[in-house]
Amino acid sequence: MTGEIARRTFMLSGAGAVAMGAAGPAVEPAPGDAARSAGSAGGKAMEVYEEPAQEVPIEPEADVVVSGGGPAGVAAAVTAARLGAKTRLIEVNGCLGGVWTAGLLSWILDASNKGGIMAEILAELDRRGALAHYERKCYDPEAMKLLLDQMCLDAGVTVHLHTRAVAAARGGQNRLALAITESKSGRRAFGGRVFVDATGDGDLATLAGCGFDVGREGSGETQPLSMIGLLAGIRREAVAPFVCNLPEAGGHGAAKDRLLAEMRRAGLDPSYARPTMFCIRDGLFCLMANHEYGVPATDADAISQATLRGRAEVHALVAGLRALGEPWAGVQVVATAEHIGVREGRRIHGRYTVTAQDLIDGKRHDDAVCRTTFSVDVHSTSPAKTKGIMHEKVRAKPYDIPYRALIARDVDGLLTAGRCISGDFLAHSSYRVTGNAVAMGEAAGAAAALAASGNRMPHELDWAAVRDAIQSVSRA
Ligand SMILES: Cc1cc2nc3c(=O)[nH]c(=O)nc-3n(C[C@H](O)[C@H](O)[C@H](O)COP(=O)(O)OP(=O)(O)OC[C@H]3O[C@@H](n4cnc5c(N)ncnc54)[C@H](O)[C@@H]3O)c2cc1C
After folding, report:
1. Spans of all domains in the chain
2. CA torsion 381→432→337→224, rounded to 10°?
3. pLDDT tens track for 38-65
4. What is the per-residue pLDDT across 306-340, written as a single tens digit (0 to 9) for each?
5. Which of 75, 159, 326, 380 is most buried per CB count within 10 Å?
6. Which of 3.50.50.60, 3.90.870.40, 3.20.20.140, 2.60.40.380 would CATH assign to domain 59-112+152-216+344-473?
7. 147 C-alpha to center of ligand 1: Å?
C-alpha cells in the first residue's frame, strides 16, 4: 500500500481529499470564477470560494504519525519511538504539552496509580525541582515544556511544531494513509502505516471520516473553556490561606471560599465561582478563575472571543486583588495561557464506548489500558444553572478504559488517545484528566508501533502483546 501511495498524486479539494491517478490534472480556477454564491443560510446569502485542487508533496513515510502533542500525544509518540517505530509528532502550538504547557494547567490529576510515562514524568520533574513541595500534583509548566522536548528528542521522535493537521486521505481498504498539514512550509502530506489522533478535539479522525459525539446527550451542551494565568509578586506566607495546595489553607474548599470572598471584597464576581490558586514554588502561583460558557471547541471565532474575554478577566481579577493592598499589593500576572483551556471537543466513535454506567459499575476489562479513579467532574454548562461544578447523580467507582475505546470504529489504521476517545458525556468528564490521557497515549503509541511493524491493523492486535510492549520500554 505504501509504495502505491508514494507513486500517486493526492489532489485536495473542498471538504475532503480524494486520491487521483498520477495523470490527474491540477485544476486552475478561471479568473473571476473562484467566488460564487452558495445559496443561503437562514435567509442570508453566503459566498464561497471554490479552492483549486493542488499537488501536495508527500514527506517520507513514517511507521507512526501522531497528531497533537499534548499529554496523550507526547506519551504516544515517545512510546512508539522507544519501540523502534519511525515516529512523527505533529503539533500546532510552538511547544509540546497541550493543556499542560500552552494551557498553563500546572496540576496533574489521576496520576498516582499510573506507572510508565506518567510516573517517569513526575519523577523527572521532581528530580529537576519542578514539582511543588506541598502537593506533588503541581508542576512548573516551563520545566514541563523542556522535559517533553527532551523526552521526544531522546526517543528519536521527529517533532513538527507550528504544524496543523488540516485534511486526511484514505488509501485502500478504508485505511488512513495521509495526514495533510498546513504550516509556514505550506501544505505537506505525512504518510504513515498507523496514525494516532491525540488532538483533544479529534481533528484528524474527523477529517478522515470518523463519526463522533459532542456534548451532553440530547442537549449537546458542553463544559466551559477556561483561561489560566500565572501570578508572581506575592509572598507564600502572606497568601497561604487562599492557596489550595498549602497546608495553612486547611483544604481546597476553604481556600476557594476565601479567595472568592477576596475577589468580591474587590467588587468583582469571577465567572468561575470556585476560583482556585496553587503555589507552584515560592513566588510563582497558578490562578484558575475563569469560565467561558457555551463555546464550541471547533468554532475558531467563538474560541477567539472567549480567549480575549478570558484574558481580560484574569487581568481584571488580579488588578482588583492588587487594589486591596496587602497581602496582594505586589501581585502581577506574569503569563496567561497561549491557548485557552478546552475541556471537551469531539468524542470519536470507537470499537467500545465508555459510559456513565461503566463508572457506576466500576467496570473491569481484560484489555484495560488504565484504571480511572477520578470522579465525574462537570464544570457548569450554563451560568444560569451555576457558575461552579454541576451536581450530577452518577457516583463513579474506579473503572477501566478498554483498549477498544481507543480504536477508531469507522476508519482503519487509526487510534485515538486522550480526551477525544470514545465515551459519553459523563464518562468523559471523569477520564479526561491528564493522568489517564498519558496512559491512553502510551497504549496507543505501543499499539501503533506493533501494528506498523507487524503490518496489521490496531484492531487485529492481541492486547497482551501491547501491554508487554509498554512494559518493555517502561522506565518508571
Ligand atoms: C481549564 C482546564 C482545567 C483542567 N484541569 C485539569 C486538572 O486539574 N488536572 C488534569 O490532569 N487535567 C485537567 N484538565 C485536562 C483535561 O481535562 C484534558 O482532558 C487533557 O488536556 C487531555 O489531554 P489531551 O492530550 O487529550 O489534550 P490536549 O491537552 O488538549 O492536547 C491536544 C494537543 O493537540 C494539539 N492539536 C489540536 N488540534 C491539532 C491539529 N489539528 N493539528 C495538530 N495539533 C493539534 C493541541 O495544540 C494540543 O497540544 C483540565 C482542562 C482544562 C481545559
Report:
1. 59-112+152-216+344-473, 228-336
2. 0
3. 555 555 677 999 999 999 999 999 999 9
4. 999 999 999 999 999 999 999 999 999 999 999 99
5. 75
6. 3.50.50.60
7. 17
